[in-house]
Amino acid sequence: MFSPSFCPKCGGPDLGQQIPPGDTHERLMCRGCGYIHYVNPKIIAGCIIEQDGKYLLCQRAIPPRPGTWTLPAGFMESGETTEEAALREVWEESGVRAEILSPYSIFSVPKISEVYIIFRALALEITGQFGPETMDYKFFAPEDIPWDKIYYPAIRQILERYIEERQAGVYGMYMGNDDSGKIHFMR
Length: 187
Ligand SMILES: [Zn+2]
Known about the structure:
Blueprint: E1 15-18, E2 27-30, E3 36-37, E4 42-51, E5 54-60, E6 69-70, E7 73-75, H1 82-94, E8 96-109, E9 114-126, E10 134-140, H2 153-168, E11 173-177, E12 182-186
Parallel strand pairs: 4-9, 8-11
Antiparallel strand pairs: 1-2, 2-3, 4-5, 4-7, 5-6, 5-10, 8-9, 11-12
Bound molecules: zinc ion.
InterPro entries: Nudix_hydrolase, NUDIX_hydrolase-like_dom_sf, NUDIX_hydrolase_CS, NUDIX_hydrolase_dom, Nudix_N
Keywords: Hydrolase, Magnesium
Cofactor: Mg(2+)
């Protein structure tokens, strides 16, 4: 994780880990001016988009792991809602204009300080134009999904569950974390 060597506020070099008064966590603090360097998790927002029983996946063109397939998802920007971030990522990575149906899954990866928020969404328009982070995009029938090329186990698990649920026509909501390796189910 990035830690500055100099205080971003006063430029001083006297930074050290300590628990600020009234706080519960150790933080990097400037002993010169009292600046506190907070490090908070990043949010990644994305969508499961199904059309006629096929599921939208994007093939990554850039590191990490170019060539692998994943759900369209990416880092939320400041000033966005999670829904806006998810739809923007879908647009950038697949050229699909979509609308959100409901939240579907929230899971945390505390080791790398990331939180994934995945929505169910509906494709409104498929333009065929996508950004440089994507090599290809495709709507896959379940039997054609390249499961072994979806790198991230939690993404595989979310998509598997969704496909099962679509057959039953009832969608749950999930939360979980990467440390247990399991996405938990709640209704
Ligand atoms: Zn300072």
